Backbone:
């Protein structure tokens, strides 16, 4: 395995050993374990703005940002004040609060296609519930998803999924009944002809197509305009719903989501991550006419003890109320400078590299070929990824520990951080090619 020679991580190592006695793999979510990069994970003590600090006292510029939610960085002053006030008032009632409507209105203003919304506590719940709604609304069983897209870990969606499944090289999970997997039809991402063929053959049985309109769970891969437009057309033509899973891309790829970038209105949208500002929030929403089929307005069942939790709503409100489209222009500029810098550094050392960024999401792929789908990512140099990953950590840069994950940026990252990060990549490439 790889060892961090330049950092003292004694306490993290001991903590991981202890954690493995009580939790499978020592973690509560698989990619955190750093298994894919062949080493022990860092245990985090705290974060402030763009930095995280591990329990050994090492400081890193953080580009994982809790896998997306922390667009204002760690422990943003206003968010902390609002959360503290909210916690002092009470953490949960299981009764309506004004904050739920407030967040619903904010989301509707930013993404007008979400006329009505239902709050949940994770992205997994959001997509699982949206799929049930689509099936209940259309009275159909089959769903379409794209290879390498990840929509959380509910049974129907755990087929040919990206993120952790891709990281560990598996295409579904023991425990997912074959019958359910059978109703999930998969196609390659960005495969326009494949989509048309699938709908020509099965169109009348398909309840919905769910897609990450900018994929983020095999690194960042934008859906092409033609691909997303085709999806909009074939779903409409066959009476199926189109679900944009913007759990990651919402308030990330663009302030108004990918739907604004491509000017396509999905029937339903799923949200997560930034919508909770670091607290557990997910949501699904869309047209009145569809959403009103949900209980208690309609009869398609959905519920949750902590859905719309007041602390979680406050996390979302206090985050989104501080953001405007101008912030995204700033962050986009910085990410462009960062990915350009990484690409130039790779060129300098003769390392094959393709970089992608959409808004505040970015990826670097160890392959110089075009990256448009899951197979393209699988062809990347994983060994080089691992080597450079540890070098980056040693240089104080914390990036996603897998080629199949996205990196992010926050409003707190500065031009100086970008320069330091490019220098860290340069040093990592230098060490890795020696
Ligand atoms: N959809 C997408 C696009 C995601 O990126 C994720 C999580 N990375 C999910 C759904 C699942 O969200 P959660 O981890 O909150 O369950």
Residues:
């Amino acid at each position: 395995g790889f060892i961090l020679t330049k950092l003292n991580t004694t306490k993290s190592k001991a903590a991981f050993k202890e954690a493995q006695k009580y939790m499978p793999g020592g973690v509560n979510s698989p990619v955190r374990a750093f298994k894919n990069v062949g080493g022990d994970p860092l245990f985090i003590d705290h974060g402030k703005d763009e930095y995280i600090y591990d329990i050994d006292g090492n400081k890193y510029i953080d580009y994982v940002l809790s896998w997306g939610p922390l667009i204002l960085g760690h422990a943003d002053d206003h968010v902390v004040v609002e959360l503290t006030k909210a916690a002092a008032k009470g953490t949960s009632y299981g009764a309506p609060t004004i904050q739920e409507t407030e967040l619903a209105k904010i989301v509707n203003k930013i993404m007008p296609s979400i006329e009505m919304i239902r709050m949940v506590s994770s992205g997994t719940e959001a997509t699982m519930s949206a799929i049930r709604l689509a099936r209940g609304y259309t009275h159909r069983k089959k769903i379409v998803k794209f290879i390498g897209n990840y929509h959380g870990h509910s049974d129907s969606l755990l087929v040919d999924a990206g993120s952790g499944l891709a990281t560990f090289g598996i295409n579904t999970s023991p425990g997912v009944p074959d019958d359910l997997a059978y109703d999930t039809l998969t196609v390659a991402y960005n495969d326009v002809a494949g989509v048309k063929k699938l709908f020509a053959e099965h169109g009348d049985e398909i309840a919905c197509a769910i897609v990450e309109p900018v994929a983020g769970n095999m690194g960042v891969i934008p859906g092409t305009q033609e691909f997303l437009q085709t999806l909009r057309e074939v779903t409409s033509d066959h009476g199926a719903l189109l679900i944009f899973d913007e759990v990651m891309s919402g308030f990330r790829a663009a302030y108004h989501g990918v739907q604004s970038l491509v000017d396509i209105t999905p029937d339903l949208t799923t949200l997560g991550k930034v919508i909770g500002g670091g607290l557990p929030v997910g949501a699904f929403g869309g047209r009145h006419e569809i959403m009103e089929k949900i209980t208690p307005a309609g009869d398609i069942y959905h519920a949750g003890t902590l859905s719309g939790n007041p602390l979680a709503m406050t996390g979302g409100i206090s985050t989104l109320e501080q953001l405007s489209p101008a912030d995204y222009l700033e962050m986009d500029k910085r990410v462009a400078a960062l990915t350009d810098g990484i690409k130039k550094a790779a060129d300098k050392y003769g390392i094959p590299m393709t970089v992608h960024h959409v808004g505040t999401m970015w990826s670097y792929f160890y392959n110089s070929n075009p990256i448009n789908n899951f197979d393209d990512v699988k062809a990347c140099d994983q060994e080089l990824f691992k080597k450079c990953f540890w070098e980056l950590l040693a240089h104080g840069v914390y990036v996603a520990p897998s080629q199949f994950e996205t990196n992010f940026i926050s409003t707190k990252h500065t031009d100086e951080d970008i320069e330091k990060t490019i220098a860290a990549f340069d040093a990592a490439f230098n060490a890795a090619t020696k």
Observations:
- The chain has three domains: 1-53, 77-320, 324-397.
- The mean pLDDT is 95.
